[in-house]
Specification:
GO terms for molecular function: DNA binding. The chain has 143 residues and is mainly α. 40% of the residues lie in helices and 6% in strands. The chain is elongated.
């Protein structure tokens, strides 16, 4: 992995000091990794991958593939859809025509509830509570 980090530094045109500053680690840790004294930690690798998102993580960790991610790699969120793909046909729904006389008539007619039926057989409604947006409520008792 040390050799791949050196390749990355050369490819990006960075010194070890600038590389350390870019990924947010101490300069001595880069020196220790490049000299072979220490192996890179998981935190170090994550910081490299975060600072250089175009670097292929598989290459950095295992040496497999190319140094940089390929442009034609398919990803669910990297590609932007074409306008042709987005075009959806939305049917125009016409509102129903309302006869003004029927509307006025139905607003004025209030039918009393003659029988309180429950949706659950064998159970009776005891109370109905209506909560309003102004934090008030009203209770209705069927009896």
């Amino acid at each position: 992995m040390k050799n791949r980090i050196v390749q990355l530094l050369n490819s990006e045109g960075l010194t070890s000091s600038k590389f350390a500053d870019t990924i947010g680690v101490q300069r001595s840790s880069i020196s220790h990794i490049l000299s072979g004294r220490n192996n890179p930690s998981t935190d170090f690798i994550q910081k490299v991958m975060k600072a250089f998102p175009k670097v292929n993580g598989e290459w950095l960790l295992l040496g497999i593939g190319s140094m940089y991610k390929t442009q034609n790699a398919n990803s669910l969120f990297e590609t932007e859809p074409n306008e042709k793909e987005i075009h959806l046909e939305t049917p125009v729904i016409q509102p129903p025509k309302i006869n003004r006389e029927n509307q006025l008539h139905s607003e004025n007619v209030k039918e009393p509830i003659l029988e309180m039926n429950s949706f659950v057989p064998g159970k009776q409604i005891e109370k109905v509570v209506v909560f309003y947006t102004d934090k008030t409520f009203k209770e209705y008792n069927p009896s």
